[in-house]
């Protein structure tokens, strides 16, 4: 008689949970997965997928404007927001169905409901206790809402996917991935957009020059970017939302700032100020699983928590909070526990993209990180107007940067702002994972005319920095 009801109980049907469950079942383990919402997690339902669909749609307005330079005339253009969202919802529903069929087809027992952990080997769901040899917590995160008066009047990225119409005046609070992406989305559909960030530059943790260049491009598109600024309170008025703001205001295009306190009115305020792990109320702390004050679970290199039979992956642990990272973690754990084993997930060259407009792609070290690691760093940098725009009125510029160890010639980081930056950086991430050198980049023949070829033709060093 089996000691446990199942070999593995997975809580959460997002990227990590689905991949872990499906692969573990494929290796012969008996697996049960609990999900209280829609399958696919944040990425499929209120993250990467619907967000990028909205990015695609919002970019068409500029594309149509650019057509004039190529001789096209377009009249009577209009946008149907309700049709956009209906089509988006239909696509998300299709993906939800695919996830369910994949799980059931692999032999995973899918249970709908909210699960809580009652012991090292037991879970309660829908009033029933299920025992498992191992438990994996993959519950993801949720948007954070700051503790200020009137915060409940604002939306987060979750609610942005359910708006009934495009607002005319939008304040996006937060200078991370989500903030930049939604600022571009709203602006592309015709809204007047203010992007507000409490730090000195947006995208904390990215290369400093990249942070400065993207702000220039966002402002060029008509987005008001306000840094070193915070929302103090929000009040509802007859005509919108009155937002009290404390911080600085740009007085001119050359970034002359003035400290100020003011009240501005918007139709929608959206908070994009980070996400918190969805781990509260699950019974984890009660059975000894160590977490920090935000609810982030502590794990070792094998994704084991302080309770050896319980594992955690995805957005609830201190690793890059990216869908491909969660997928890699799920695959690794399934192979380690039930399959032929696997090499550990590598985090040294995790490429990422910000689907702002223009797009950002980056892999490897920032300039500051490179100088902390190496004694000498060679910096290669290029900025140019893409060929597609030379016959249009658009002044957008593509920007690229390569960081090289001045002693070993190894490429340390590659960064880009411009059309399809994510698509371009993906290929160079493979090269960096293989240890590419600057000499090897120089020896590569580019594809002409493309923007990507600039990465293999930047032969003149912009500067050398030394520790």
The oligomeric state of the chains shown is single chain
| Uncertain segments | none
> N- to C-terminal separation?
64 Å
What name is given to the CATH topology of the largest domain?
FAD/NAD(P)-binding domain
Helical coverage, percent range: 25-40%
How many E strands? 23
- What structural class results from the helix and strand content? alpha/beta
- The first-level CATH class of the largest domain is given as Alpha Beta
Major β-sheet profile? 7 strands, mixed
Rg computed from alpha carbons, rounded to a whole number of angstroms: 24 Å
Give a verbal description of the structure.
Helix 1 runs parallel beside helix 4, helix 1 packs parallel to helix 8 (about 325-340) and helix 3 (about 50-65) packs across helix 6 (about 175-190). Strands 1, 2, 3, 4, 5, 6 and 17 form a 7-stranded mixed beta sheet that branches. This protein has about 475 residues and is an alpha/beta fold. It is built from 11 helices and 23 strands. It has 3 domains: about 5-140 and about 275-340, 3-Layer(bba) Sandwich (FAD/NAD(P)-binding domain); about 150-270, FAD/NAD(P)-binding domain, CATH 3.50.50.60; about 350-465, Enolase-like, domain 1 (2-Layer Sandwich).
């Amino acid at each position: 008689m089996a000691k446990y009801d199942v070999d593995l109980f997975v809580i959460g049907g997002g990227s990590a949970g689905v991949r872990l469950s499906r692969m573990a079942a494929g290796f012969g383990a008996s697996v049960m997965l609990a999900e209280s919402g829609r399958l696919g997690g944040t990425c499929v339902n209120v993250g990467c997928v619907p967000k990028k669909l909205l990015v695609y749609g919002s970019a068409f307005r500029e594309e149509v404007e650019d057509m004039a330079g190529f001789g096209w005339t377009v009249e009577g253009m209009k946008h149907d927001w309700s049709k956009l969202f209906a089509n988006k919802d239909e696509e998300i529903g299709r993906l939800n169905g695919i996830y369910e069929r994949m799980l059931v087809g692999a032999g995973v027992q899918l249970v709908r409901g909210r699960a809580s952990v009652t012991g090292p080997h037991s879970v309660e769901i829908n009033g029933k206790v299920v025992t498992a040899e191992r438990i994996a917590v993959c519950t993801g995160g949720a948007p954070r809402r700051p503790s200020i008066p009137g915060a409940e009047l604002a939306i987060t990225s979750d609610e942005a996917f359910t708006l009934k119409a495009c607002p005319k005046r939008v304040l996006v609070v937060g200078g991370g991935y989500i903030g930049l992406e939604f600022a571009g989305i709203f602006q592309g559909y015709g809204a007047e957009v203010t992007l507000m960030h409490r730090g000195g530059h947006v995208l904390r943790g990215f290369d400093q020059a990249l942070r400065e260049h993207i702000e220039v491009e966002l402002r060029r598109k008509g987005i008001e970017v306000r840094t070193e600024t915070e929302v103090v309170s929000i009040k509802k008025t007859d005509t919108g939302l009155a937002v009290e703001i404390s911080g600085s205001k740009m007085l001119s295009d050359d970034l002359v700032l003035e400290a100020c306190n003011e009240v501005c009115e918007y139709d929608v305020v959206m908070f994009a100020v980070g996400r918190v792990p969805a781990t509260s109320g699950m019974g984890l702390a009660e059975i000894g699983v160590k977490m920090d004050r935000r609810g982030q679970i502590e794990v070792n290199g094998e994704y084991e928590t302080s309770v050896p039979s319980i594992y955690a992956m995805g957005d609830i642990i201190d690793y890059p909070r990216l869908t491909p990272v969660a997928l890699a973690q799920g695959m690794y754990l399934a192979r380690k526990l039930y399959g032929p084993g696997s090499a550990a997930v590598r985090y040294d060259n995790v490429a990422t993209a910000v689907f702002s407009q223009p797009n950002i792609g980056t892999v490897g070290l920032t300039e500051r990180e490179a100088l902390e690691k190496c004694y000498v760093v060679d910096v290669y940098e290029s900025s140019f107007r893409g060929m597609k725009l030379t016959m249009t009125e658009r002044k957008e510029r593509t920007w690229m940067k390569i960081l090289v160890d001045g002693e070993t010639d190894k490429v340390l980081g590659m960064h880009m702002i411009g059309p399809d930056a994510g698509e371009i950086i993906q290929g160079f991430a493979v090269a960096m994972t293989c240890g590419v050198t600057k000499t090897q980049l120089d020896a590569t023949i580019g594809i002409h005319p493309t923007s990507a070829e600039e990465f293999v033709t930047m032969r003149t060093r912009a500067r050398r920095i030394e520790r």
